[in-house]
Amino acid sequence: MKLYTKTGDTGKTSLMGGRVRKDHLRVEAYGTIDELNSFIGKAVSELDSTVFQDILADLETIQHELFDCGGDLANVMKERKYKLQEASIEVLEKRIDVLSDEAPPLKRFILPGGTPAAATLHIARTVTRRAERQVVTLMNDIEDVPAIVQKYLNRLSDYFFAAARVVNFRMNVKDIEYIRSGDVFK
C-alpha cells in the first residue's frame, strides 16, 4: 500500500460521506485534534513510566478518544453513529479531581512550564482550547457536529492543566505563579 493517494492534489480531501476543501473548518478542527494527539505522544515520551503510570494510562486512553473525536468530526454521512461517549467525559472529570487533590492548592494563575513533560502538557492544553474554539465555530456555522466533542475538549483542557501540575509536583518542581495575578482560585 502506498502512503500517497494523489486524491488531495486539487486541494480537496475526503470525509466519511463527502469531499471538502482542505481549508474547510471541519478539516481544520480535526487537523488540530491530530496535532494535539501528536503533542500527547511527545508528553508520553517525556514521562517516566515508574513515576507516571497513571498519567500514561490516561494519555493512551485520551489518544484513542481523540481519534474518535476526529472520526466523529469527519463523519458527514446521513446515517451517523458517533464513537465518542459521555462516559469518556465522566472518566476525565474523576481523573481531574484525583489529580487536583494531589497537587498543592492553587490560588493564582501559573506560568506554563516546569519539567519538559509538564511544558508539553501545557502545550496540549492550549492546542485543545484551539480545537474547541474551532468546533464551536463549526457548530455555530450550522454544521451537524456532535456536541459531545466540544464538551469533551472543554474537559480535556482541564485535565491537561491538572496533569501538568501533578507532573511538576511529583518531580519536585514548583509551579511559578504569575506575579501580577490576584487570588483567582478558591
From TrEMBL:
GO molecular function annotations of the record: ATP binding; corrinoid adenosyltransferase activity
Pathway(s) where this gene product acts: Cofactor biosynthesis; adenosylcobalamin biosynthesis; adenosylcobalamin from cob(II)yrinate a,c-diamide: step 2/7
Annotated catalysed reactions: 2 cob(II)yrinate a,c diamide + reduced [electron-transfer flavoprotein] + 2 ATP = 2 adenosylcob(III)yrinate a,c-diamide + 2 triphosphate + oxidized [electron-transfer flavoprotein] + 3 H(+); 2 cob(II)alamin + reduced [electron-transfer flavoprotein] + 2 ATP = 2 adenosylcob(III)alamin + 2 triphosphate + oxidized [electron-transfer flavoprotein] + 3 H(+)
Gene3D superfamilies per UniProt: Cobalamin adenosyltransferase-like (1.20.1200.10)
Keywords tagged on the record: ATP-binding, Cobalamin biosynthesis, Nucleotide-binding, Transferase
EC numbers on record: 2.5.1.17
InterPro entries, alphabetized: CblAdoTrfase-like, CblAdoTrfase-like_sf, PduO-typ
Pfam families linked to this entry: Cob_adeno_trans
Domain Cobalamin adenosyltransferase-like: 3-167
Any single GO BP term: cobalamin biosynthetic process
Subunit details: Homotrimer.
Similarity section: Belongs to the Cob(I)alamin adenosyltransferase family.
Protein name per its UniProtKB record: Corrinoid adenosyltransferase
Species name: Lysinibacillus telephonicus
